[in-house]
Amino acid sequence: MTIELPPLPYASNALEPFISEKTMSFHYGKHHATYVKNTNDLVRGTDLENASLETIIFEAASDTVYTALFNNAAQVFNHTFFWNSLTDQPSKKEIPNRLLEMIQADFGSLEQFKAEFQKKAVAQFGSGWAWLVFEEGHLKIITTGNANTPLVHPTQKPLLCVDVWEHAYYLDYQNARLNFVQAILEHLINWDFALKNLEKEEK
Fold this sequence. Notes:
The chain is mainly α. The protein contains nine helices and three strands; from the N terminus they run ααααααβββααα.
């Protein structure tokens, strides 16, 4: 099975001015594409050659022989999830009542959720990811380093994520990670995607 680079869910300039087309050309066109190529190269000839991306990630996570494969395959998943966590469509940016009620119950308010998400995303040392996950009946904000992903933790169901590797924001925001995270939370979050992920896990 060949792992494919999925198309972006919007035009490469659709997220401007918050994420530039130039950033997208590097981030999606080079970084993400390279992770896909590396995954296919590394999995070829192994026991996982015909496995799905999710199976590759889960199996490779527990075997040090597959460390490089895990890092690249997980980055394919994480990046695809990130692109889908963003939207240029106003209707998808409207937070559904169900999610809003859950956020208010678990964080106090939408504003407090955003503040905590920003704090944790900025505090993630080095490269990594900030996630909104559903775990044991509650919404939680977690961060993962490098290529790590909640996909390998069965109790954590990812709803949204934000990439906080420097290549995600440096061309547009330089070292101001906070400004990048704020821009995403205020202008680009795809709440419709989060709700669909939540509903999928509850079936």
